[in-house]
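TOKENISED FOLD:
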Amino acid sequence: MPQVRVYVSIPMPVEEVFAFLADGCNLAAWHSGVMAIRPDGTDEEYRYRFPGRRRECRLTRTVYEPPVRVGFVGQRMWTPLGTQVPRFDFRLWSWEGGSRVEVGVTSCLSGAMLLLWPVVACGWRRDLPVDAQALYEVLTGATERPEGEMEEMVAVREAAGGGPTDSTAPDAAVGAPAPRTAAEVGVLGPDISTEPGFGSVEPYRRAPARPRAPWPARRFRLPVPRG
């Protein structure tokens, strides 16, 4: 089950960013997993086109926790190799007067599609940082980047930063670029990384691993020679 997450800092209040993400019709403006979308009767049901599909599929908003979390689940799509169910999750928290957004995608595969999960994961790792860049540009209206900004973005992506700070948070690695403030982000561009940043708040919590029961001991007997 491929699961990819990236994080982007946006110099806007959490409430405004959440209101934009909670409206599924806005996904087509920046997310590569949604080619076109329209409402389907209620605020939680939509009809959308997944890349490579001609027919519309159903998209349902299954998580709505303002202004912290919102999630959408797509309809199960059939292929000759199996099925795929895409899920789009977003988590938000305040950071230095702005917002830190987690953009996540999960693909539930079945059948022979399970053999292609490395290819699916590789595609999302390639596209999701570009989607985070597009989300930043759509919300802030920043379409032109100052000269030399791309080098700055490459350096920032190599380091964690932008998460909630705490007195018990670990120190940053020596030589790593320091996290930028919301004012600096508005000038230099988005802070995109694959880490949420330092702090006590973890956007995702994994369930503790369950202990496995020991395998029963087996006894093997050598064949008794006859004659």
Q: What stands out?
A: The chain has a mean pLDDT of 75. The helical segments are 14-22, 117-140, 149-157, 182-188.
